[in-house]
């Protein structure tokens, strides 16, 4: 019962008691009856004067009213907490309301902020209007909202300073959702002029902007989708050389009765920006021509965002810089020749690194590496690397020029390696001279090479082969991946070819050729599963009596071949059981993986099946199989793989460990 009702009831009760007592105590004279009928004021009790009775009644009435007011004021000033119950909406709408309603935001703060009941009532009174405004942002323009408060214990005494706990609710009827009706996208400015003049790029961009509109007719209207659609138009136009594009006008006409939103947008393209001069910041020991050699555009070309990103990627891949940014300030006054700033942070002139690790090839290993960015004052990098492992050791020196037009980089390399595998100790000496070209998706390597491969039986210590060869080589890698280091979708294809002549100490030398190819695919499977497949083929073409260096022949087995077997333990052997290289190779793999949980997206579990082998000829080829399971950690530097695999021929489990992606 409200405070006003309580006061009125108290006054009426007091009046009835007073009147009833006076009428029963003394009969009224005719004159008194008339007075009563005309002025029903306070009637004195028997033995009291009229003035005394009136004073007593007024005092009692005031006392009751004051008590009620005091009680109501005390009740209004009580501290409260509450639980908010929202009904009639789906989970997304309820989440929106709980995130933005004052009534919801103060729910968790009520006790700490010492919110009173009267303040809660104010919040509750404002909630319907707030809720309707929030639902309008989601396209519900006819929502009905009512509030409720459960005060069944509102008058119950509360010990000490403990707040009163209440239940508060919103009952909502959101109504029908508004859908997009007519959409008009008008293009103004130089883009429209160019398109009308028949410029092919401008016509294609206008069509792309209109066909790519993300809030088409019939789709649900929301304020966020409306804003995102306009932003997408701006982003798309700016990426295609119109860097000053903006929305010059937009209207969303809402028909609340018909649940329809008609959209009208005017896009002002601004001028088409073109490449101007390059400005360099941060250069010290790297010459500017090393940067200009990597340019993928010419002065006067349209300044497209993707062109800049590709140029920036080339600079990053050059291994000359720690940080690279390519940027410009889109000033319409300079649109015809926009200056572009290349801001870099160079790598240290000299770098030395020390590493420890393990792999199926080398076992435990340590690595020492030194990099000089500009050897002897020339534009060449020098990279020296020493790796010492239990079953593999190597020493290499690679000289690589700074980028040159093309973009190409010249290279000179020398390496000495020794590997123990399959009962053999293989020593390889190599000299290489060539050049490389790296673009956004394709890597090319051209080189001539001289090498010498010596094999020695680990049991007898006898030399089993000593073959030299000179070759002309071409390596090619193509990638179309969603991420260069941690791919989950796309393909990569690599191919290697070589033509040369061998010189052998034990067999006949002669001409030969060699070709290998490897296709790797990545694809998502549903919400959280991912697949990976690999196929690898290789063959050496030569007469049977022509010797080929062991390092150019094929063996299978290991982390990146057929798991469940040791490195290069699969392939043909001689009469004594020592490994010999095969002239054909066929291998493949299929793998399924998924994250362990949403809270640990970098950690995956995987199952896999590998198959493959090397042989003297295809008629002798017979697959060996390996199957197992493993753990993946998708680290920033590449995936770390730990696998446990069982080989059907070895009949044993084998642990494999690897880091990185092989193309």
UniProtKB/TrEMBL annotation:
Pfam families: Omp85, POTRA_TamA_1. It comes from the Bacteria. Gene3D superfamilies: membrane protein fhac, membrane protein fhac: a member of the omp85/tpsb transporter family. Residues 1-31 form the signal peptide. Residues 273-347 form the POTRA domain. It is found in: Cell outer membrane. Its main location: membrane. Keywords: Cell outer membrane, Membrane, Signal, Transmembrane, Transmembrane beta strand. PROSITE patterns: POTRA. Belongs to the TamA family. Interacts with TamB to form the translocation and assembly module (TAM). This is Translocation and assembly module subunit TamA.
